[in-house]
Design a protein that fits this description.
single chain, 189 residues, alpha/beta, 434 Repressor (Amino-terminal Domain), Trna Endonuclease, Chain: A, domain 1, 2 domains, five-stranded mixed sheet, 57% helix, 14% strand
């Protein structure tokens, strides 16, 4: 466990506040707060500020501890929290698409492969504000490597930038869709 989590847990014990109560007072879901306390990820500063307010800690001190903990995370690869969320999203989507008769397999990269009517598709998941050029590059490399018919990219939260960039991606056989749009597309195949 990291210093950031230890500091929060110690203060929670000293003021006798539960995870649920802390989450509610800070304006978060219990699940989110549990993930933070398990060390799956370190929240952004605005959320740390809210936690500090509830616990009666100096927000600057808690943010400083969080920055030290973040320094240990390598920026050139996905953090454990994104990997966890990506796997959870892949599992959820796989459960939905198997009802359409689609064969699914899980992998590390891509997280989800689909086979339908002798065609192969990959599904990638991106975080909010993902680097679109990097995503497109990865998708094209994957498409070539695995001889895929299409690659679908499902953003965590679709932004205006995603919508603008999706037209360029389509030219290369890479489609940025929501999970619901992907389900509709697979039904039509």
């Amino acid at each position: 466990m990291n210093l950031f989590v230890n500091k929060i847990r110690k203060e929670m014990e000293s003021i006798e506040i539960s995870v649920s109560a802390l989450a509610q007072a800070a304006g978060f879901s219990r699940t989110y707060m549990t993930d933070v306390l398990r060390g799956r990820y370190i929240p952004k500063d605005d959320r740390i500020y809210a936690i500090a307010q509830v616990l009666g800690l100096n927000p600057k001190d808690l943010i400083s501890v969080a920055k030290e903990a973040r320094a240990g995370i390598k920026a050139d690869r996905p953090t454990r929290s994104f990997k966890f969320l990506e796997q959870r999203r892949a599992k959820s989507l796989a459960e939905a698409v198997t009802t359409l008769g689609v064969d699914c397999s899980f992998g590390d990269y891509p997280p989800l492969l689909l086979k339908l009517n002798k065609k192969s598709y990959a599904v990638l998941f991106t975080q909010t504000k993902a680097d679109h050029r990097f995503t497109l590059g990865c998708a094209l490399e994957l498409k070539e490597r695995d001889k895929l018919d299409k690659v679908y990219v499902i953003p965590e939260l679709r932004t205006e930038d995603d919508i603008k960039y999706s037209d360029l991606m389509k030219k290369y056989g890479v489609f940025m869709l929501t999970a619901e749009e992907l389900m509709s597309e697979l039904k039509s195949i």
